[in-house]
Amino acid sequence: MWWVIALSYKEVTHAYGSPSLALSATQVLLLMGGSMIGSIVQLPGVGGGSQLATISILDHVFNVVPKELAVSCGIMIWLVSFVSVVPVGLILAHRERVSLRKLSTESAQAEDAAIIAETK
Question: How far apart are CA 62 and CA 22, in angstroms?
């Protein structure tokens, strides 16, 4: 699984065709590690830190010029590695007859019940 993730990082950066994004295996692993550490941090107003960590590594460590290329590549890596599973998950949820609206309602009711239980 990790090999496929590393390969996707390598292929996304390679797809830009820029010599500054021709990453070695060590650089790909560094980029993956930074992305994983960044995904732990949730930044207010920005969302996930994964994009910010990836963009920062591409910009400050690998010195990708122009900066827009680093931002674009960082966002594309995030889309490929994190967001690409959402459509599959929604299809599987539909196939299993999981209602997201029903889950949301049940979750809100459980929260209300927990708040009421705490106040008693």
Answer: 10
Distance CA 83, CA 81 (A): 6
CA–chain centroid gap for 101, Å, is: 24
Tokens at residue 35, please? 């992305």
This prediction has a pTM of 0.74
Question: Mind giving me the DSSP string for 14-43?
Answer: HHT--GGG---HHHHHHHHHHHHHHHH-EE
Distance, in Å, from the CA atom of 73 to the CA atom of 32, rounded to the nearest integer, reads: 13
Query: How large is the greatest C-alpha to C-alpha distance in the chain, in angstroms?
Result: 65
The band of 46, judged by pLDDT with boundaries at 50, 70 and 90, is low
